[in-house]
Structure formats: C-alpha cells, structure tokens
Amino acid sequence: MQDEFLRGGALRGGGLSDELVCVPCAIDRKGNAVSKVAKLGKCSTKAVREVLGGHVSPDATLCTDEDASYRRFSKDNGNGLVQIKGGKKTVKGIYHIQHLNAYHSKLKLFLAGFKGVSSKYLNNYLTWNNVVEHKTGTLREKVARMMRYVASTMFEEACTSIPLRPSLPILVKNQS
Questions:
Q1: For residue 1, which of 45, 59, 58 has the smallest C-alpha distance?
Q2: Can you list the alpha helix ranges (DSSP code H) found in 28-118?
Q3: In a 3-state reduction of DSSP, which class is residue 115?
Q4: Neighbouring residues of 127: CB distance < 8 A, sequence distance ≥ 6
Q5: What torsion, rounded to 10 degrees, do the Cα atoms 68, 131, 8, 161 define?
Q6: Residue 26 contacts residue 95 (beta carbons within 8 Å)
C-alpha cells in the first residue's frame, strides 16, 4: 500500500528519512489504483487516511506490509486486515501483495522515463500513470477521467509569474 520515492538526489544514510516522499498506494483485484503524495518521511496513519479514505469500502480486506499505520487505518475504517511480513514469502493463504508489487514496478518504470520528477509535480505523474495503467475503459473514458482530474485540481500561480507566460495565439478570420 505504500512506496517511498527519493526526493532531490541520493539518499544519505539507510532506512526511511525525511528525504523520501511517502506515497500510499492501493490497488484492487480489478486493477483500479489510487496513489497520492502524502508527506515527507515515514508513512503515518494520518497519511494513509488522507490518501485512501473514501477509496476503500468498509467491507474490503486490506493486504499490507507490517507497518502499524495500516493496522490503525483498518481498525478505524472497519476493514479486515492481513499483514504480510517482508521478505521472500509474500503470500498468506489467498492473500498476497503481488498486485501492489507489480504496480510499484510499473510506476517506477513509468517515472524513470522522465529522467527525474519534481516532488511538487509527482501527484500529476501518479494520476497520469493510473489513467494509463487502468485496466478497464476505452481510450475515450480514460481521457475523460484524466480531464475530470485536471478540471478539479487546485492550481495556484504567483501574480509575478503571469507576465512571463507566453501569449496565446489568436486566429482572426480574414474579412476580405
């Protein structure tokens, strides 16, 4: 349910640090995915709640790694929970985390093609990846989903940068 992305160059030291961007992720068996930048550093229950809240139905069973933030989220949300210990064995009965591991691999491959992604634009890339990788829907439906995201995203621009934008070309119909 979570992946950490390096922010601004090489990681100093081992383990999790505030140099990593916390990106909680979830994917269902149909291939529907949700992922969003939550914060810098180690994942927390609040970060998981902000990203996954409203996207996980109460009757869903979450299959996660052993992070405590998932235990608290599933308890608060009324979900079943199966936690898989890291390492070679990533299966517990019918539950596994291979779908999420595959999602992470594809996401990292997608982001690698851009030769570096700024943290402030990472949510846009995550959404783009989810639209491209979404298992269901026609191209028209995928484009419509992406346009809904673009239209509903908050955008801020400093007044000082407005004059620096290139002017829009305006076509004037010749009246002769």
A1: 45
A2: 45-52, 68-77, 98-112
A3: coil
A4: 146, 149
A5: -130
A6: no
Query: For residue range 101-138, what is the model confidence (pLDDT) as tens digits?
Result: 888 888 888 888 888 788 888 888 888 888 777 666 78
Give the distance from CA 128 to its chain's centroid.
Answer: 10
Whole-angstrom Cα distance, residue 89 to residue 92? 8
pLDDT in tens, 43-75: 899 999 998 888 888 889 999 888 889 999 999
pTM comes to 0.67
Token readout for 144 is 């419509």
134, burial (CB in 10 Å: exposed 0-12, middle 13-18, buried 19+): middle
Q: What is the pLDDT of residues 141-167, one digit of tens each?
A: 878 877 777 777 666 656 666 666 665
Cα 39 to Cα 42, 106, 162, distances in angstroms? 8, 22, 29
pLDDT of residue 176: 53
